[in-house]
Amino acid sequence: MSLQELTDAFSLGGINRSNAVVNFKEPATTPEEMFDPKAVWLNAEHIRGLAVEELSGRLLPIVREAGFNVDAAKMLRITPLIRERIKLLRDALTAADFFFVDQLPPYDPAELIPQKGDAGMALKVLTRAREALAKVEFKHDPLDQVLRAAAQELGVKAGQMFQPIRVAVCGRKNAPPLFETLEVLGRETTLARIEQATGRLQ
């Protein structure tokens, strides 16, 4: 329900005489753990209902206060990629951190190895990906086409192609859609991170 619908449906006659309760959990290790799961779920629903521009405007000061130098235009491009992945506004700091940094924090090189593959396959995939991405236009469809074609050339499944690239550029497997992520990161950052990843496998 929208805020207006809730306002229209509200009446004092429907108020229960007992006190409302919000369950806070102590000790909490994350902000999300402090709140009742229903409250977190409701907050996530409101986040998804916001226009991208409004949500981006709310996220930007949180990201900047955390010490990241991000401009409004870049935040606007990142926001639709993480909107379905955050439940609280501050979750953007973990859902999108790899967009904000020049260097990824250390990650386990084993994450680069695709399912039913080995380090040799991962190295082959990343080497071919770097060659292909050096020449393609950094837009969704061209990126999709060139990487799927590269997978066919190598005789690997699309998922086996995409996972090492995703980990190389994001530092983890669980990340926003690959092609949109590459678009935002851009060619220079993408190629640099893939090159660093190949070094971890050698």
Task: Note the topology.
Blueprint: H1 3-9, H2 37-49, H3 52-65, H4 72-82, H5 92-95, H6 97-100, H7 119-133, H8 140-154, H9 158-170, H10 178-201
Helix pairs in contact: 3-4, 7-8, 7-9, 7-10, 8-9, 8-10, 9-10
Description:
The chain is mainly α and 202 residues long. The longest helix has 24 residues. The termini are far apart.
- Name the poorly predicted regions: none
The appropriate CATH architecture of the largest domain is Orthogonal Bundle
Average residue pLDDT: 91
| SSE-based structural type | mainly alpha
Following the backbone from N to C, one meets helices and strands in this order, namely HHHHHHHHHH
In short:
The protein folds into two domains: 31-100, no CATH class; 109-201, Arc Repressor Mutant, subunit A. The chain is 59% helix and 0% strand.
Question: Which tags fit this structure?
Answer:
10 helices; single chain; elongated; 59% helix; 202 residues
